[in-house]
């Protein structure tokens, strides 16, 4: 059977003061994202800018396990 890689989107939704409240967690979040990228799980990620109300991350894998692990960490 052919090996299939799928893609999974993880959306973070936030409210108006999201940009301020994320500051204490940003370095750890970015390190976590870089590690997922190095493992080949994370394809791309970024904040939603107009308005600043969340972010989206694109994962790849046979299942949604990598995206779920990221969200639960």
Q: What report would you give on this structure?
A:
- This protein has 73 residues and is of the alpha+beta class.
- It has one domain: Dimeric alpha+beta barrel (Alpha-Beta Plaits).
- The chain contains three helices and three strands; from the N terminus they run E-H-H-E-E-H.
- It has a three-stranded antiparallel β-sheet with strand order 1-3-2.
- Strand 2 (42-49) and strand 3 form a beta hairpin.
- The longest helix has 13 residues, at 26-38.
Within the largest sheet, what's the order of strands?
A: 1-3-2
Classified in CATH, the superfamily is: Dimeric alpha+beta barrel
Strands, count: 3
What sequence of helices (H) and strands (E) makes up the elements? EHHEEH
Task: Supply the number of structural domains.
Answer: 1
Amino-to-carboxy terminus distance: 33 Å
Structural class: alpha+beta
Low-confidence stretches: none
CATH architecture assignment: 2-Layer Sandwich
**The CATH class:** Alpha Beta
Shape: elongated
The average pLDDT is 92
Task: State the helical fraction.
Answer: 25-40%
| Main beta sheet | 3 strands, antiparallel
The total of helices stands at 3
Q: Strand share of the residues? A: 35-45%
Topology-level CATH name? Alpha-Beta Plaits
CA radius of gyration: 13 Å
């Amino acid at each position: 059977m052919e090996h299939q890689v799928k893609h999974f989107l993880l959306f973070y939704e936030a409210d108006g003061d999201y940009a301020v409240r994320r500051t204490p967690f940003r370095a750890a979040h970015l390190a976590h994202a870089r590690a997922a990228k190095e493992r080949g799980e994370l394809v791309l990620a970024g904040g939603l800018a107009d308005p600043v109300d969340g972010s989206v991350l694109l994962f790849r894998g046979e299942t949604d396990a990598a995206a779920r692990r990221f969200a639960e960490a």
